[in-house]
Write a structure and sequence with these properties.
The protein has about 170 residues and is mainly α. It has two domains: about 100 residues, no CATH class; about 60 residues, no CATH class. The strands form two sheets. It has a three-stranded antiparallel beta sheet with strand order 3-4-5. A two-stranded antiparallel sheet has the order 1-2.
Length: about 170
């Protein structure tokens, strides 16, 4: 049973509840009405026009995507790989930017640079399965991180010659 806040008569006690109620205050805040909100017994401070409740909601939804992918990967390697390969986090980021009324140029730049940053990470997915049985998980992961950083540096250097600045 959820408790009622004496002043607002709204349910308290569940994180989903305060996120749902704060979504309305986020819309009000985005239109510039109030910088501070008091919802369900919690104080939400505005940060650059976005309430903390909205930021928490974004974390929860994005984390849910990651958890669902990892749970699916436990049951099916192929399906887990397919879903992980989808640009779900990038799509969520684009949606968040749009909802937060960022300029189209900023959203477009995010998609453009995401493409160029993904390309040098792809060889890691070929190196990881080769090294894993030979070196173990943590050394393989560390090697792949270093390998990806090297690929990124080489890729950025080559792209600079074509007028694309990644660094």
């Amino acid at each position: 049973m959820l408790r009622q806040d004496a002043q607002s008569k709204k349910p308290r006690g569940a994180i989903i509840t305060f996120v749902m109620y704060d979504a309305r205050s986020w819309l009000d805040t985005m239109s510039g009405e109030k910088a501070r909100r008091r919802r369900n017994g919690f104080r939400f401070e505005s940060y650059r026009g976005v309430t903390v409740g909205w930021i928490v909601a974004k974390y929860l939804m994005t984390a849910t995507v990651v958890v669902v992918i990892s749970e699916i990967a436990k049951r099916s390697d192929k399906l887990g790989g397919l879903i992980a390969a989808l640009p779900l986090v990038t799509i969520l980021s684009l949606v968040w930017l749009h909802i937060e009324k960022q300029p189209q140029e900023k959203i477009s730049n995010h998609a453009w640079y995401t493409f160029w940053y993904v390309v040098p990470t792809l060889p890691m997915f070929l190196v990881f399965p080769v090294l894993l049985p030979r070196a173990g998980f943590w050394p393989t992961l560390a090697t792949c991180i270093a390998f990806t950083a090297g690929c990124f540096w080489i890729f950025a250097t080559v792209l600079r010659k074509f007028g694309i600045e990644l660094l």
